[in-house]
# Entry
Amino acid sequence: MSRLFGETHRRVQDQQGTRKLADRIEEIACKTEIDEDAKGFIESLDMFFLSTVDHQGRPTVSYKGGFTGFVRVVDDKTLIFPIYNGNGMQLSVGNMVENADIGMLFISFERPHRIRLQGVSEVSNEPALLALYQEAEFVVKVTLSELWQNCPRYIHRYTRDSQSRYVPVAECQTPLAEWKRLEFVQDVISAEDAEKAQAAGFIQVEDWVAKIKAGAPDV
# Structure
């Protein structure tokens, strides 16, 4: 009994003559525990991609970033990661609350290397968990279903230029997101953010867009 393949996968595999290869890869690569190698790789990263499913059954993928090690492996079946302040839409969180099944892609563009993970999420705002991450709004606990390493041959090599200045740290105040200084959002952001925006000065949409296009590091 395969953990990864259904009837449609099997039909396509048979059409392409890859069923035996797929079975061998699953046999070798598919794990139901997070071993030390996988733990070391996951905790060496400062980003990953999160896949969730919305209320209409549509999949979506989002980028999650933090400082190195922000995804923590608690034990061989469990990991946690923070949800920081975002754009207020709560798409990832809302999706996980409604449908706990998620996918996670951990990838290094410098090695290159990647691990795909499927699991069941639990969104929490328990104080003990929130205390693990500076300014986290939620902490997500993931119980592992399966993980497997993918062939890295198509991963392009990139190097990191710098880490985001918006990741919260205890030693200094987290900067206000530049888009929260746009005038047309002042009546819908929090009073605290609106006060910060007024103190910093409002910016025009065209200036903000120009900074994005120019690849400005502080956007």
